[in-house]
Amino acid sequence: MTKQVDYSLKHRSEPLFRVSKRNGLEKWKIALLYVGAILVALTFGAILLLCLKVNPFKFYLDTFTLGLIGNAIPLKIISNFINSFVPLLITSLGLSLAFKMKFWNIGGEGQFIIGALVAASIGIGLGDKVNGFFLVILMCLLGGASAGIYGLITAVFKVKFGTNETLLTLMFNYIALYLLIFFGQTKAGWNILLDPNSDRPMFVQIPEAAKMWSFSVGGLTINTTLIIGIAIVVLLFFYYKKTKQGYEIAVVGDSHNTAKYAGMNVSKIILRTVFLSAFIVGLAGAFKVASSSFRLSEAITDDVGWTGIVVAWLAQLNPFGILLVSFLLAVLQFGITSSSASYSNLDANFADLLQGIILFVVLAVHFLINYKIVVNKTKINAKKMAELKAKGFEIIDLTISKNDKKSEIVSDESTALENSEVSEKTEALKITDAEGGNE
Amino acid sequence: MKKRILVAILVVAMVASLAVVFAGCDNAPKTFNPDGVFKIGAIYINSQNDNSGYTYAHHTAIKKAMANLYLDEDRLAIVDNVPEEDDAVNAAIDTLVGQGCDLIIGISFGYINAMNNKAKEYPNVLFTHATGYMSNDTNFNNYFGRIYQARYLAGIAAGLKSLEIKNNKIGYVSAYTTAYAETASGINAFAMGAIAANPDAKVYVKKLGSWGNETMEKSLAEALIQEGCGVISQHCDSAQPQIAAQNAEVFGCGYNSDMTAQAPDAHLTATVWHWDVYYQKAILTAMGGMENFMEKMGKDYYAGLKEGLVGVSPLSKNCAAGTDKAIEAVSKLILSGEWDVFSGVKLSVDAQGKITKTNADLKDCNGNVIVEAGGKSVDDSVIKSTMNYLIEGVIGDYDIKE
After folding, report:
1. What's the pLDDT band for A15 if we cut at 50, 70, 90?
2. Which CATH code fits A73-332?
3. Are B377 and B315 in a shared domain?
4. Inter-chain contact A324–B78, Cβ cutoff 8 Å?
């Protein structure tokens, strides 16, 4: 029996490097890598700042302290920061719920708008008829529920007709936005959302009774929704870890078939979870109207529906991770606004730029933590083939002579392929051939 | 588990850092400007690094006014890309006041409520708001101008060009139409100027639905060009309509800044604001002490061609022959106070600068008489924002009565 060596694999399909899964990197190393990634991004930003003749140390100091150093009214600045942080936090939490189930809810912007729109309508419509305490609760609950139903529509389509939820939730953003613009620009007797005292169309402020109560700590006004936001973090954490519903979300996220096999009602779980996801996002919108801006605006979302997606994924859908990541991103955005105020050549776009660089590097690190890149060193060249032939090996292409089961396939030390791996690879090769593609 | 601990530690650290910051803070001091250096704060709707359009016009004007007053650039703090949303505007105002600004300039209409509220909150800071209508007795005014006078002049340039290219269709990309007196008066004045130079001219309007949206501005201009318009005017933030005109080898009139640089072979002349006229006066007055500011500047500062607040940019090589003479002749009429745009006296002007006045009713596009023949100008309908009609000769692509 002649000894054969399979040449097909190396000859035609091995790329220069391949990506394989990596397991078991220590937690502290992971943390270090992320911190390193952020430092690399900040260094890159510092180079850009130097090009603009801005002192990067002073700039970063001002950014990460929110410009509080030397500020005449620091407590107000902190209140404002909380106002911009809470919507991002709550929206990210809401979105993560759907993502956990691998339902790509990118309709956060639209759900936020619906929540705000409904809350404002109730606040203005019932402002003088209902007790303030109940009014605020009604605004928030109905705002959230309307957004929940708005999100539920996309889920119903997904469950009943198998539509692509990414596309549908995306389009629903624009429906909500243009609905808001319609109300914002249509002067008419029925339109209670507009200010009757303005000749130009302008949203009216919600009445005093509809404003959410806030509390004060040592002169610092704190938005009540901050506490609610942190409470949602904790609740979601236990929802995922300790409840049956949380477990169901995880199973459906892994595989619909597994969930069905386990006797779960997949449709029901999807509908329930998407409603809850959109409800929380809508709640963020209602909170925004009731607790800080007190007035609708076409720019009311502050893009949290988009930024929330990034936050949820960077935090790997962990509620406490979302608290941390949304805090850091809010610091970055808010801080750069105040630190760039005193530089005439730096505009607020720099925040987006720096944020983009950070995300890019962090995602690269995220990839490297989960996967490793293996460079292939095993390649048979013409010289090696001649050598093998001289030693009495027959060079075969397994994909062609695959019926020849009797011949023993060996590999010499230079190819370093174990027998088992060869047969495995051959299997793989058959599949790729059948599909007519290359590896 | 370790990861959870790590997250917990970081959360604690972030709360602790906030607490440290709180501890170091006192309540707001009584004067925001302890070192006595006068500082200006500006809030922009777009980026300060824009190179054309509305924000650019304000930014360059503030810098020009400061240079004329020998003020260093570091006395200007800017928060830009601020949307018309109260939280965002409040935060921008607090940032600027916190950095010691004495005069806060807000350039976009939607800042109106936040500025009004913050003016009460910070009685030691002056607030001045472009295009708004709110004010108070002590530290908050608004400013705007008779831009329609300059629009009329640009309309003359467009009308003469339409005669030269023998195409009576003139396009107009407008942020809004009759919902805002600002846009309605702009369309009307421009159309009247064009008709004064070319009696057969028709102005076709397309509505953007926002003050600026570069993609839409471009596609609306392209749609107007496809419908056969030979001159494209605009009331929107960017130079995209002019660039579209340049690409389609037609002509155009820009807005806010001289857009000849963006469309060298298309642009005729732009309707421009000389905001520096206001800013220089306002900054100088504010530096003299805030007591006299309201009295000297007025609650509603409203100026026009006469004060130099509005005008047209230098005529480009693309203008039809005689445009300079015609514009000069009409300017003289307006400057002397003898005639104004929205009156019962209709002008007709030719390339030699010869003006013929006729008494005629000023009618809206539905035939209603706004001003009877020979009547006085309804300038106040622009100032008081009650102009909600388009005049004869304007054609919209949808229901014009919004």
Report:
1. low
2. 1.10.3470
3. yes
4. no
